[in-house]
Amino acid sequence: QVQLVESGGGLVQAGGSLRLSCAASGRTFSSYAMGWFRQGPGKEREFVAASRWNGDSTDYADSVKGRFTMSRDNAKNTVSLQMNSLKPEDTAVYYCAAGTPRTVALARRRDRYDYWGQGTQVTVSS
To answer: What is the tens place of the pLDDT at every residue in 93-108?
Structure first.
């Protein structure tokens, strides 16, 4: 029912920046939380950031706090992830997700999200 498409990935040098975007279609997301997750080679998909579409609340993994900023444009059904001061360990496939977690803790769990994008590759060289 809901389609999510990520874009904006690419290759950057350490210390550089990228901006990822996620476009949603099929319905509105006024009551949905949106999340960003990432998965590096040989690793499980991990939480990066999450935001409520009906408020200003956001949450970030400790590994990206202070460097990444998640924002939203509800009128266009899009969310973004501005990534600054990128490190080689940020290299991963980044996924956009939509779901209905009730708490900040639940918003960090993959199983609280119902819809996922196909992912976009981010590679940070040293």
So the answer is: 999 999 988 788 899 9
- As a whole number of angstroms, the distance between CA 85 and CA 73 comes to 24
Cβ contact 68:49 at 8 Å: yes
pLDDT tens-place string over residues 15-48? 999 999 999 887 766 678 899 999 999 999 999 9
Half-sphere exposure (CA, 13 Å, Cβ side) for 87? 8
Q: What are the φ and ψ backbone dihedral angles of 111, each rounded to 5 degrees?
A: -75, 0
- Full DSSP string of 83-101: E-S--GGG-EEEEEEEE--
